[in-house]
Amino acid sequence: MAHSMLHPRIVVTAGEPAGIGPDLCIAMAAREWPCELVVAADRALLEARAAQLHAGIELRAWTPEAPPGRHRPGTLAVWHHPLAAQARAGVLDPRNARYVLDLLDAAVAGCVRGRFDAMVTAPVQKSVVCDAGIEFSGHTEYLATLTGAPRPVMMLVAGGLRVALATTHLPLRRVSDAITRESLDEVIRILERDLRTRFGLSRPRIVVCGLNPHAGESGHLGHEEIDTIIPVMETLRAGGMHLIGPAPADTAFTPHMLAQADAVLAMYHDQGLPVLKHAGFGHAVNVTLGLPIVRTSVDHGTALDLAGSGRAQAGSLAAAVELAIELATPAACGPTSS
After folding, report:
1. Which of 16, 88, 100, 132 has the fewest Cβ atoms nearer than 10 Å?
2. The pTM is what?
3. Domain of residue 206, CATH code
4. E strand segments, the chain
5. pLDDT digits (tens, 9 = 90+) for 150-160
6. Are residues 168 and 63 in the same domain?
């Protein structure tokens, strides 16, 4: 651990400079945290946004050589990374796209080298990164490439509800082809392993959704369940995993089913996340499984219209920091029975 078992060192990337990421980082400064909190951002950007928000905080320069130090409310340790162009709240500028990715590159490198125990990401604007001519489909895929992780798995957490995804940012017409026996086997294995090793569940119970309405209705509404999902589940069950389903998505999230589950695996982005966000929007956390590092994030976008207004809600980023601290200190959790 980069700091100590009691006080891990967490790096927060401030995300899109025109969005609410800087606002949320400033809001984090006011709180008490049982960790060392380091924000990777342009210092002048944070100073300007703090002034715009009338937030009286002390910004302290941080470098990778800095000695450990627990977060002090009212202060913020800033790992300075310069913007390419001055940022204005609510106004996107493709010239700053590389800056956004530089923050991620630095945070990942810091985690891999053991300088940080976890990273937390404020929201980025995919469109402006792409407008800058950089191929970018999202945090999850980008971080997987940086760390050499072959199969990242996106999971959102809100309260006791955990929803993982078999596929992430794909057009709907490509989802079925993307769900192969090999890919689904990998996703379920990663989900089950990380629920054990990171969340302390000794034998996780996972509800697996079908892809089609009524989970295919015995082949009358699609064959993906028969051809792919069921054979994978049978193989993994034979190896000792506790898998339920495939369950129709419209029943997988009923109270009765959720009472039996430690996590739900949805087949595609909008099959599972609307339910999760309805249950916990504003305090849900995005966790990337399958990485060699701990990464959590907010459950929302850049909210350009709220940047600099003082109306942005910091609940999701606060929850992401809290979960990062928990996942970075597994000894504090201890294994539990599912």
Report:
1. 88
2. 0.92
3. 3.40.718.10
4. 9-13, 36-41, 58-61, 75-80, 118-121, 153-158, 161-165, 205-209, 242-247, 263-266, 285-289, 295-298
5. 999 999 999 88
6. no
